[in-house]
C-alpha cells in the first residue's frame, strides 16, 4: 500500500483540495480542540460520529477513512487504571523471557542441536503476560474459560511460564524438542495437543490455520449456546498471530464470517514486529496501516497499539502535526532499522526530519531516545486495548500491537532480518540479556558452561510467584490446559441402523443417498441426534441433503429475516438461531475449521459433538489437507464424507472434479480411517463402529476421523446378507459373492462403485469363458495396508516369535488363482495391498486426468469396466495355461475393448 505522507497531506486528501475559507476552517478546528480539552476524546468521538451520520443523510460526500494516523487508537484520557502490580509483573515477566531463551539456547549444545526460536516470545512477552495476569480465564472460571490460540513460535514462553507456575521442571525444559529421547520429560516444539494432550489445546504453527480455526471456534461457542447445549456467553476466544502470517490467504480469507455473525467473543492480537521470517513484512509500506484498512473493511473493530507511554508527552506537544506526519510517512523498513541501531541514530534519522521534531527531543539523552518504547511492550497500553476489546459489543476485535522482534536480546538479535533463525547466544549476548532483565545470575555461571546457563526460579514462596499463582487462581486456573473429561453420550441403538440394512428394494439409490438416509435416522435419535453437526459447503442439494433444511434447519445466529423465495415448497430453505446444520457456503477451508471446532468440543467444552462434513471428494484432502493435519493434531473426532467420489462417476463435470486419488491423500494422515464402501449396509456398520471407537466404552484410540467415500451413481442397494462377515467389513475385506461354477479360478477384488462391475465380470467370466471367480468387497485398501505393515513391523522387532499374518492374507488364504483388483481410483490405491498376497496380482485403475464424458465411455477409456476386468483375468489365466492362449485376444475383439463407444458399464443419473 502507499505510505501516508504526513498529517497535513492526509487532511488535504480528506477535504478534497483547496480551502476556500481558511479562517472559517480554523474556527471549526478550534472548536473541536476546545471540545476535546473540556469534555474529552470520548465526547468528541460521539460528536464526530453524529456529524458524519448527518452528512451522509444529507448526501454530503465524505470519503471513507479506512486508516487512521499512525498513533494509538485509545486516547490517553480514555486509558483505564492498571489494576495489577506492574513492578511485580515486570519481574516475573523478565524471568520468563530469560528462561525461554535459555531453554532454546541449552537445546543447541553440539550433541543435541534441535533448533528452536528465541526472538518471537522475546518481542511478544508483554502481549501474553497482560493476558495471563488479567484476561485469560481458565477452565475452572465460572464462565467456562477462554480459548487461547498461541502463536506457534512463541511456545518457549509458555513453557517458561509453566516452569514458574510449578507445572514443569528444569528437567522438562531440558527435554525441549526431544520427545522420544527425553520421554517423560519432553516438550514439543510448538503447540501440539496430540504430543502434549494435557497442556496444549490448539495447534497453530502451520501459519494461517490458527486465525481460521479461531474464527470458527468462536462460531462454535455461539452454536453450542444457541442450540442450548452449553452456556458459552462468558467465554472469549483469543488468537495471537504474526503480521507476516497475515499474508497467508487463510489468515484473512474468513474474516467475513466473524463480522457477519457479530462474533464479539473473538479477539485477534497481531504481533506487529514488522518482520517476516527472512525480512520486513512491508519494507516500503506500513503493515499496521494495511491491516487496519483490511480489517475495518471486513467489518471488524480495530485497535492500534503503536506507541508506549513515553511518547505521550511528545505527542501532546505535537501541535502542528509534524511528529505524527513523520510517524505516518516512515516506512516499516526504516522502523526496523531504527531498532537495530542506536538512540543517536534515531535522533538523527527520525526526529531530525523536521526542526520541530528535532527540538522535541533536544533535552533527551540518546539513551532516553532509545527507550521510547513501542506500544506492544507497554503494559498499560496493552491492558487498555484488551479491556476495550473484551467490552466491545457487536463486532470481533483485532488489536494491532507494534513490537520489536528479539526485544531485549541485544544488538545481534534485536530487529535483525536473521533473528527468527538465530538460536544460539554468545556469552556476551547472555550477559547483556541478563543485565537488561536484571536476572540474578553471575558471570561465572554463564562462563562455566556456555550451553548450561542456569534457569532462574526464585522459589515457590517468593512473593512474585505467589502473586502469579493468585492471579491464575482468580482467573480460573492455568492456561493453556487441555481436559478430556466430557459429558457421556448414549450411542444410537439397532433401530437407527435398520434403514442401512434394508437396501433400496426396486429403487435405484447411490451410496450418497444411502448415507443420507442413515444420517437422517441418526439425527432423529432422541438421546443422540442433537449431538450431530452436519457441515456442508454449498452443495447440499447435490448430495440430497436439502431434505434436512425444513426440520434440522440451517444455523444462523441472526435467524432468517427475509421472505424466502421457496417458502411454499416442502423442502424450503430455512435458517434459524437454533439451526443444526452448518452451511458454510462455497468454503471448504471454513468447513474444515468448523469440523475441527465441533470435533474437539468434547475437550474444549466437555460437550461432545459429532461433526459430519460432507463435500465433493475432490475438494477435501487435496484442497485442505493441511487443515486435516491440524485437526489430527487437535485430536478431532468425526466423520468426513467424500461424496461424488471416483474418477468416472462425475464425468460430466470434468478434470478438476474427478477424484481418483483421495484415499491415497487420506492415507498420509495417521488419524484418518479411510473406507470406500459399496453398499448402504456397509456404511451402517462402518459408522456404527466409528461412533463406538470415538465415544463407546473400552476404546483404545478415540481420536480418529473417519473418511468415507460415497458415490452419486444410482444402483440397486442390496439388503444386508444374513451371514455378513462384519469383521471383514470393518477390517477392510470380505467375500461378497463366491464363484457360481467350477472352472479355472480367479479372484476379483473391488471397492466402492466398482463392486457392481466386478459382479458383472464374474457373470461374464462364468457365462462366456467357464471361469470360476470369487468377488471380494474391499471396504478399505488403506486399513488393510496399515494392518499388513503393522504385522511386518511386529515380525521385524520380534524375530523369535511366530509372525502375525496380515488380515487380508488370512481372508484370502486358500483363495486360488490370480487376483484382479479394480477401483474407480488410480492404480496406486489397490496396489497398497499387493505385497501381502502371494497370488499373482494385477491392478486396473483410472490413472491420469479425468475428463467429461459418459460413465461407460470413461470406464472403457481407463480400462476399468466390467469387460476390462474379464480380459485382464483371462490374460493372467492364459499365461498359466488355465484357459486357451487365444482367449484374451478373442475377448478384446468380442467386447470391442479398444472402442470407447462400446462401453456399457454403469448407469446414468445421479446429481452432478
Automatic annotation (TrEMBL):
EC number(s) stated in the UniProt entry for this protein: 1.2.4.1
InterPro entries: PDC_E1_N (IPR035807), PDH/Transketolase (IPR051157), PDH_E1 (IPR004660), PDH_E1_M (IPR041621), THDP-binding (IPR029061), Transketo_C/PFOR_II (IPR009014), Transketolase-like_C_2 (IPR055152), Transketolase_N (IPR005474)
Stretches the record annotates as Disordered: 1-23
Gene Ontology MF annotations: pyruvate dehydrogenase (acetyl-transferring) activity
Residue span(s) of domain Transketolase N-terminal: 145-310
Domain Pyruvate dehydrogenase E1 component middle per the UniProt entry, residue ranges: 493-714
Entry keyword annotation includes Oxidoreductase: yes
Annotated keywords: Oxidoreductase, Pyruvate, Thiamine pyrophosphate
EC class of the enzyme, as a word: oxidoreductase
Catalytic activity: N(6)-[(R)-lipoyl]-L-lysyl-[protein] + pyruvate + H(+) = N(6)-[(R)-S(8)-acetyldihydrolipoyl]-L-lysyl-[protein] + CO2
Transketolase-like C-terminal domain: residues covered: 732-865
Keyword Oxidoreductase: yes
Cofactor: thiamine diphosphate
Taxonomy, superkingdom: Bacteria
Function summary: Component of the pyruvate dehydrogenase (PDH) complex, that catalyzes the overall conversion of pyruvate to acetyl-CoA and CO(2).
UniProt cross-references to PANTHER family, sorted A to Z: PYRUVATE DEHYDROGENASE E1 COMPONENT
Protein name (database record): Pyruvate dehydrogenase E1 component
Amino acid at each position: 500500500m502507499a505510505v501516508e505522507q504526513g498529517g497535513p497531506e492526509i487532511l488535504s486528501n480528506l477535504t478534497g483540495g483547496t480551502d476556500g475559507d481558511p479562517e472559517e476552517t480554523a474556527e471549526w478546528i478550534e472548536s473541536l480542540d476546545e471540545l476535546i480539552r473540556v469534555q474529552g476524546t470520548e465526547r468528541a468521538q460521539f460528536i464526530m460520529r453524529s456529524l458524519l451520520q448527518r452528512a451522509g443523510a444529507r448526501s454530503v460526500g465524505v470519503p471513507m477513512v479506512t486508516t487512521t494516523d499512525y498513533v494509538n487508537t485509545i486516547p490517553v484520557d480514555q486509558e483505564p487504571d492498571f489494576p495489577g502490580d506492574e513492578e511485580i509483573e515486570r519481574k516475573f515477566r523478565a524471568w520468563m523471557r530469560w528462561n525461554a531463551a535459555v531453554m532454546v539456547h541449552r537445546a543447541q549444545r553440539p550433541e543435541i542441536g534441535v533448533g528452536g526460536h528465541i526472538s518471537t516470545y522475546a518481542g511478544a512477552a508483554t502481549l501474553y503476560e497482560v493476558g495471563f495476569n488479567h484476561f485469560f480465564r481458565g477452565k475452572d472460571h465460572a464462565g467456562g474459560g477462554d480459548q487461547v490460540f498461541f502463536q506457534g513460535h512463541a511456545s518457549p514462553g509458555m513453557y517458561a511460564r509453566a516452569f514458574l507456575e510449578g507445572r514443569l521442571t528444569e528437567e522438562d525444559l531440558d527435554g525441549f524438542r526431544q520427545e522420544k529421547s527425553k520421554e517423560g520429560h519432553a516438550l514439543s516444539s510448538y503447540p501440539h495437543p496430540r504430543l502434549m494432550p494435557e497442556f496444549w489445546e490448539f495447534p497453530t504453527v502451520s501459519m494461517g490455520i490458527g486465525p481460521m480455526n479461531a474464527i470458527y471456534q468462536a462460531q462454535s461457542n455461539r452454536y453450542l449456546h444457541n442450540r442450548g447445549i452449553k452456556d458459552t456467553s462468558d467465554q472469549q476466544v483469543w488468537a495471537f498471530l504474526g503480521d507476516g502470517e497475515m499474508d497467508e490467504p487463510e489468515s484473512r480469507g474468513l474474516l467475513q464470517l466473524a463480522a457477519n455473525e457479530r462474533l464479539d467473543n473473538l479477539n485477534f492480537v497481531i504481533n506487529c514486529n514488522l518482520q517476516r521470517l527472512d525480512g520486513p513484512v512491508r519494507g516500503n509500506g506500513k503493515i499496521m496501516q494495511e491491516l487496519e484498512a483490511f480489517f475495518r473493511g471486513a467489518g471488524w473493530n480495530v485497535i492500534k497499539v503503536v506507541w508506549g507511554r513515553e511518547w505521550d508527552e511528545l505527542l501532546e506537544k505535537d501541535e502542528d502535526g509534524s511528529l505524527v506526519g513523520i510517524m505516518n510517512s516512515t516506512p516499516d523498513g526504516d522502523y526496523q532499522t531504527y531498532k537495530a541501531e542506536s538512540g543517536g541514530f534515531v535522533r538523527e534519522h527520525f526526529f531530525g526530519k523536521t526542526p520541530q521534531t528535532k527540538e522535541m527531543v533536544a533535552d533527551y539523552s540518546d539513551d532516553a531516545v532509545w527507550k521510547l518504547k513501542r506500544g506492544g511492550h507497554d503494559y498499560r497500553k496493552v491492558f487498555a486495548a484488551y479491556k476495550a476489546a473484551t467490552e466491545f459489543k457487536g463486532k470481533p476485535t483485532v488489536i494491532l500491537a507494534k513490537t520489536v522482534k528479539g526485544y531485549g536480546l541485544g544488538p545481534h538479535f534485536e530487529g535483525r532480518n536473521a533473528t527468527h533463525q538465530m538460536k544460539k547466544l554468545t556469552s556476551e549476548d547472555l550477559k547483556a540479556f541478563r543485565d537488561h532483565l536484571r536476572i540474578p545470575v553471575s558471570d561465572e555461571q554463564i562462563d562455566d558452561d556456555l550451553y548450561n546457563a542456569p534457569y532462574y526460579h526464585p522459589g515457590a514462596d517468593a512473593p512474585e510467584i505467589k502473586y502469579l499463582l493468585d492471579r491464575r487462581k482468580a482467573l480460573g486456573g492455568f492456561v493453556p490446559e487441555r481436559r478430556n473429561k466430557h459429558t457421556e453420550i448414549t450411542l444410537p441403538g439397532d433401530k437407527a441402523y435398520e434403514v442401512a440394512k434394508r437396501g433400496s428394494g426396486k429403487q435405484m439409490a447411490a451410496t450418497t443417498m444411502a448415507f443420507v438416509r442413515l444420517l437422517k435416522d441418526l439425527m432423529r435419535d432422541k438421546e443422540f441426534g442433537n449431538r450431530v453437526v452436519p457441515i456442508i459447503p454449498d452443495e447440499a442439494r447435490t448430495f440430497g441433503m436439502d431434505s434436512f433444511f425444513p426440520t434440522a434447519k440451517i444455523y444462523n445466529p441472526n435467524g432468517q429475516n427475509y421472505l424466502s423465495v421457496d417458502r411454499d415448497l416442502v423442502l424450503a430453505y430455512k435458517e434459524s438461531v437454533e439451526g443444526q446444520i452448518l452451511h458454510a457456503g462455497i468454503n471448504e477451508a471454513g468447513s474444515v475449521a468448523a469440523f475441527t471446532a465441533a470435533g474437539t468440543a468434547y475437550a474444549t467444552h466437555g460437550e461432545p459433538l459429532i461433526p459430519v462434513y460432507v463435500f465433493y471428494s475432490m475438494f477435501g484432502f487435496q484442497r485442505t489437507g493441511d487443515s486435516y493435519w491440524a485437526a489430527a493434531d487437535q485430536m478431532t473426532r468425526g466423520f468426513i464424507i467424500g461424496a461424488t467420489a471416483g474418477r468416472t462417476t462425475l464425468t460430466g463435470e470434468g478434470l478438476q472434479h474427478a477424484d481418483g486419488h483421495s484415499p491415497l491423500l487420506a492415507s498420509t494422515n495417521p488419524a484418518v480411517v479411510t473406507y470406500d464402501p459399496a453398499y448402504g449396509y456397509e456404511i451402517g456398520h462402518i459408522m456404527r463402529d466409528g461412533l463406538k471407537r470415538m465415544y463407546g466404552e473400552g476404546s483404545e484410540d478415540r481420536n480418529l476421523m473417519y473418511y468415507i467415500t460415497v458415490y452419486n451413481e444410482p444402483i440397486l442397494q442390496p439388503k444386508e446378507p444374513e451371514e455378513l462377515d462384519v469383521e471383514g467389513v470393518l477390517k477392510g475385506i470380505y467375500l461378497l459373492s463366491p464363484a457360481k461354477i467350477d472352472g479355472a479360478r480367479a479372484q476379483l477384488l473391488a471397492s466402492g462403485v466398482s463392486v457392481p462391475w466386478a459382479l458383472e465380470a464374474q457373470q461374464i467370466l462364468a457365462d462366456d469363458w467357464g471361469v470360476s471367480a470369487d468377488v471380494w468387497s474391499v471396504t478399505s485398501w488403506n486399513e488393510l495396508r496399515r494392518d499388513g505393515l503393522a504385522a511386518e513391523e511386529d515380525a521385524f522387532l520380534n524375530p523369535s516369535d511366530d509372525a502375525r499374518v496380515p488380515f487380508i492374507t488370512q481372508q484370502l488364504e486358500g483363495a486360488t488363482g490370480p487376483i484382479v483388483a479394480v477401483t474407480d481410483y488410480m492404480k496406486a490405491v489397490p496396489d497398497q495391498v499387493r505385497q501381502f498376497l502371494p497370488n499373482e496380482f494385477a491392478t486396473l485403475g483410472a490413472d491420469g486426468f479425468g475428463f467429461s464424458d459418459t460413465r461407460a465411455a470413461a470406464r472403457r477409456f481407463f480400462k476399468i469396466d466390467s469387460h476390462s476386468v474379464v480380459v485382464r483375468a483371462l490374460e493372467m489365466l492364459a499365461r498359466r495355461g488355465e484357459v486357451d492362449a487365444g482367449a484374451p485376444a478373442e475377448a478384446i475383439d468380442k467386447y470391442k475393448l479398444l472402442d470407447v463407444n462400446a462401453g456399457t458399464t454403469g448407469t446414468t443419473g445421479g446429481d452432478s
